[in-house]
Amino acid sequence: MDYFRSVAGIPKRQLKNVRNVLTRRPLTSPSLGSVTLDQDDIDLARAALRDRSRWYEPEETATYEEAFARWNGSKAAFALMGGRVALSACLHALGLKEGDEVIVPGYTCVVVANAFLFAGVKAVYSDIELESYGLDADPLEKKITSRTRAVVVQHLYGLVSRDYEAVIDLARRKGLFVIEDCAHATGAEFKGIKVGNCGDVAIYSGEQSKVFTTIHGGFAVANDESLIKGLRAYKEKAPYPDETWIERQLHTVILNYYLFKHPQRWWRGDLARIMHGRYRVGPLVGDEMRGVQPEHYGRKMPAPIAAIGMNQLGKIDEYNERRRRNAERWHRWCDENGYKRPLVIEGSVPVYLRYPVLVEPEKKQDFSWAKKTLNVTPGVWYESHIHPTERPVEGCPNADKAIKSCINFPCLLD
Ligand SMILES: *Cc1c(COP(=O)(O)O)cnc(C)c1O
Predict the structure, then answer these.
(1) Ligand 1 center to residue 84 CA distance, Å?
(2) How many angstroms is it from 389 CA to the middle of ligand 1?
(3) Nearest residue to 169 via CA among 146, 198, 206
(4) For the whole model, what pTM was predicted?
């Protein structure tokens, strides 16, 4: 159905291109996702599709895990099929069980909420601050009960969370674990250390909209031996995705390169839709929207996905550096238009997955102004507390405000 709809849209899109040529408007604008995919990544995807003989050999994934752990400054990293699965691995490693409570920012992605739901652990939502959109340390203390076991620190948009130290201090005083959600912030640093290494366990994401991508994929890391053992146990139990899933994911690498990155994506994208569109894997499945554990959940990463991840890891520093350079454009835009720049806390190096700005709610509802004046289509993370679902979260006024007003600009501008 999706495939049919996307192919059926080709005439309309190409007509618009003709109009853009005639009126001398640009044919492409910067994409928000899959922007670190290049020709070398799709070459790897094509090679893997030609030869399936080593799809389930563990060496390539082990190499990727070691390389990531080394690059990230962590003792161990475990490659799973998503940051969400990595979070499930963390809950397992921390020994969290039914009835336990974890404090989670009330401004997050549904897959985070689901990992708790699937484990029977209660997520207690607490408000964020509006400078870096992380968990606000202030209202946090009142959320702690005798059942609280952990706190989630979330580094959004590639910024290091403003209250990083304060939240960790509080958690240490109260005897709580700290889970770091670095899904947006792979490579960001605080005081010379990559985020994810100050708490107890951390997750990173290589999903299609993140700092690096294998379409689906991510890591769980830890530095403490007993937690490493817990993560390893989860991974060893986890099955690989089946061949059909891997095949679809490899096709999606190729598809997304042509849709979002290729310089001539205005027409190559449509061609790729015809060739690869029917294999596409999206960011979420319907079960996840409904809070039901999908059948393919909880998988570990197979070799061909790890091979692309290795290639992505080799480019991540350069792409993050480009994001930081491009953020200058948005700094200037904020200064010139009377908006506040996001906060970069002292001692931190952000990676600017996206550049978040609080604008007037009307400008979030309808951002045709941005396309017209800036040739970008901003992102809308997040449009609800448990994005993109409408699951209710009460008592988070700052999150309410971000939902109405926070848009984000792309930071890779090709
Ligand atoms: C994307 C994301 C995740 C999960 O990562 P996946 O790799 O997509 O499973 C977790 N937390 C946040 C804040 C995210 O945006």
Answers:
(1) 6
(2) 14
(3) 198
(4) 0.97
